[in-house]
Amino acid sequence: MLRAALLACLTAQPALACETALLLSIDVSGSIDRGDYRLQTEGLAFALSDPEVAEALVAGQVALAVVQWSGTTEQALVLPWQRMLSDPDVTRFAARAAALPRAFSGSDTAVGQGLRFATAQFAAVPDCRRKVIDISGDGQENAGFTDAKAHAEAVEAGLVINAIAIEDPGPAYPITTYYRRWIITPGGFVVTARGLQDYAETLRLKLLRELTKPVG
Fold first, then answer.
1. Domain boundaries, the chain
2. Which of 62, 55, 46 is nearest to 204 (CA)?
3. Model-level pTM?
4. pLDDT tens figures, 93-112
5. Of all residues in the chain, what percent are helix, strand and coil, respectively (each to 5)?
6. Cβ pair 166, 196 in contact under 8 A
7. Are strands 130-137 and 20-27 parallel, antiparallel or unpaired?
8. Count of CB atoms situated within 10 Å of the CB of 166
9. Helix (H/G/I), strand (E/B), else coil: 65
10. Residue ranges of the chain with pLDDT lower than 50?
11. Are the C-beta atoms of 58 and 86 separated by less than 8 Å?
12. 170 backbone φψ class: left, alpha, beta (φ>0; ψ -120 to 50)
């Protein structure tokens, strides 16, 4: 009996370390109406359910969490950290994301406070090699005015900030430009969704970029 137990220990596969802690930070400010909010949650569930994304999540033993943010005092960890150790873990997390109630509505866009709140959440996952904030939004900071300080704090903490800029249809890219100039960290990147209808596929491609090759 003892010999069998020792043999099992010797032949067992070593546990994989957490490759990435990925925090999905979602804008729920006043510019996001009820339909827009549903497109974001359904888009998140769609992206996480993609077979390539799910495979990458499990292969990297990725830790996932979701934050919703709006005004200066309105930030909430709506899905706490969970390790993606198997396909059922990903399936359950995607289902929870699709059914998320909205934490806040009808308020300002305090990007800096949202980033600071997100940065603080990584204390719970110290063993993950990479720590990434994946922020999405459709507006520039209009309250709090701490985005530059929050950006610097994230850089100092060794975090990567990537972004999805949700733009109105048309030739201008003001939100993309804002995120590129003021929010993403060195080595981070911005992708653009042309309206929330484009959000799900943009997020899917963004997750694959984050999880299957080095960011940059």
1. 16-212
2. 46
3. 0.89
4. 999 999 999 999 889 999 99
5. 45, 20, 35
6. yes
7. parallel
8. 25
9. strand
10. 2, 5-14, 215-216
11. yes
12. left
User: How far apart are the two ends of the chain, measured CA to CA in Å?
Assistant: 52
For the chain, give the number of residues. Answer: 216
Give the Cα separation of 34 and 102 in Å (integer): 9
By CB atoms closer than 10 A (0-12, 13-18, 19+), residue 101 is exposed
Cα–Cα dist 185/112, whole Å: 14
**Alpha-carbon distance 1 to 165, whole Å?**
59
Residue 22 CB neighbours (<10 A): 26
Which pLDDT score is estimated for 14? 44
> 16-212 — its CATH code?
3.40.50.410
**How many CB atoms are closer than 10 A to CB 171?**
5
Helix (H, G, I), strand (E, B) or coil at 132: strand
Which residue is listed with tokens 């003001």? 174
- The whole-angstrom separation of Cα 38 and Cα 19 is 30
Place of tokens 């359904």: 42
The DSSP 8-state label assigned to residue 12 in this structure reads S
Dihedral over alpha carbons 164, 170, 172, 174 (to 10 degrees): -40
In one-letter notation, the amino acid at residue 209 is: R
Closest CA to 80 of 122, 110, 51, 108: 122
